[in-house]
Write a structure and sequence with these properties.
The protein is an all-alpha fold and 455 residues long. The protein contains 16 helices and no strands. InterPro entries: MFS, MFS_trans_sf.
């Protein structure tokens, strides 16, 4: 809802300051400056620097605190971490509004300080990990991926409604999208406070029929779940280790254990390189603005096209296919692996078409195809959780959050340099970053195709 309006506010603040310093260029403007006059190199360079560094600063809280909040979730519950994430995000948004509202007296660069609020809860990426942890806590592994598809599809459904609505509200009043966003965050916080805590399933027998006896967990040392010796552990991709002790304070050691589990290095490889490739989509807005002369309010339709493909894949096609094939006896792990392979191939195709787009309709089509590949993430999460003890789920998802944040920190500057290669020669972007992303995704698809599940 606030992605494009935020960029618009930043651009407006920078633009006003620029023309205040160059009053001879703004003698005919009494109140507001036309957006087209802000599309000049000095303003756009400062805007790119502001947004780029804000992206980095927003990633740091999750990078520094995600594993800590994973430990907190194991001790005090997932609901507490989710509530903190909502509160931190709300505080960050309110700070941005304060700085942009007082941009005539406060420097716009103070919006970077909004990242400090994200240390409360660890950012939205940690909240996303907690949501998937709750599903992994409460749903049997044979049904887990289907529910993860639906959970992953919910943001795509909201994306179908939010960008067009945001564009309409921006035309009425630039502040209206922020009012809606604050209301949504407040409602989320209330829902989290009222929701049940899923951590109780770790220490009691399951009451939900979705939970199978194989996935029940009792504290280590109890009669039901004595620690297994290495000789007792089954070999292959199904290897499991005893869950972490609640009293253990060296929570980082559990991450080392995760990396030693058969099959999980492959999962972490995809968790890193897939987001690194997908970060190139962040430059699609600028690509459309340069090559097709779109205004910022028009770029909201780009997200709409991608969300359409994502919604079809995660809400309709994949859950239905998962349900049908599961009833026919196909193992959940094999289904997840095949979805990962197919999704990576579709994503690679989408980025190739994105790089070749010379018409706006081709750009929208390629983003729609990219959206169809969004089933890869929940399938990968379902595969990863099936390889480990349930007590490690929170540690898994928070460590994945760290891996993805590092990938975005590396991928952001890299893709930015690739995107701007053609612009140095006074041309529009050639979309080279999209070709590199396609190459990465194709390589991951090949690796996934040679990956085997051991019996």
């Amino acid at each position: 809802m606030v992605e494009v309006p935020s960029i618009k506010l930043f651009e407006q603040a920078i633009c006003n300051r620029y023309y205040d310093r160059h009053k001879e260029l703004a003698f005919s403007f009494e109140h507001s400056i036309d957006e087209h006059l802000c599309k000049i190199p000095p303003i756009q360079d400062e805007l790119a620097n502001l947004v780029g560094l804000k992206f980095t600063f927003d990633a740091l809280p999750g990078l520094l605190t995600a594993l800590y909040y994973g430990s907190i979730a194991d001790r005090f519950g997932r609901r507490l971490v989710l509530a903190l994430c909502c509160a931190g995000t709300l505080g960050s948004l309110l700070w941005i509004l304060l700085i942009c509202y007082a941009d005539d007296s406060l420097p716009i660069k103070l919006v970077w300080a909004s990242s400090v609020f994200l240390c409360v809860g660890g950012s939205q990426r940690v909240a996303k990990g907690m949501n998937f942890t709750i599903v992994a806590d409460t749903v049997d592994k044979s049904h887990r991926t289907r529910y993860m598809y639906l959970l992953a599809g919910i943001p795509h459904i909201t994306t179908l409604a939010a960008p067009p609505l945001s564009g309409l509200l921006m035309r009425t009043q630039i502040w209206l999208p922020f009012v809606v966003a604050i209301g949504a965050l407040t409602l989320s916080l209330i829902i989290v406070i009222l929701m049940p805590e899923s951590l109780v399933h770790h220490s009691s027998h399951p009451k939900s029929p979705l939970l199978g006896p194989v996935d029940t967990y009792s504290p280590i040392g109890s009669e039901e779940n004595e620690p297994l010796s290495p000789e007792q552990l089954p070999r292959g991709i199904h290897d499991r280790l005893p869950g972490p002790s609640p009293e253990r304070k060296e929570w980082w050691r559990d991450i080392v254990v995760l990396l030693q589990m058969p099959g999980l290095p492959f999962c972490y490889l995809l968790f890193f390189f897939k987001p690194l490739a997908m970060i190139s989509k962040a430059f699609v807005y600028q690509y459309a603005s340069y090559n097709f002369e779109w205004g910022l309010s028009q770029t909201t339709w780009l997200r709409f096209a991608q969300a359409g493909g994502s919604t079809i894949a995660t809400v309709a096609v994949l859950p239905l296919m998962s349900s049908v094939l599961n009833r026919r006896g196909l193992r959940a792990q094999m289904l997840d692996l095949n979805v990962i392979r197919f999704s990576l191939a579709i994503a690679a195709l989408g980025f190739v078409l994105l790089q070749l787009s010379f018409r706006s309709w081709m750009l929208l089509l390629s983003l729609f195809i990219c959206g169809l590949s969004e089933g890869e993430e929940p399938a990968l999460q379902g595969l990863a959780t099936s390889l480990i003890d349930r007590a490690y789920h929170a540690r898994l998802f928070t460590s994945v959050a760290v891996v993805e944040i590092v990938a975005k920190l590396v991928g952001g500057p890299m893709m930015g340099k690739l995107f701007s290669i053609a612009q140095k020669h006074g041309q529009g972007s050639g979309g080279i970053c999209f070709s590199v992303a396609a190459g990465i995704l194709f390589t991951l698809m090949v690796i996934a195709c040679i990956q085997r599940i051991k019996h």
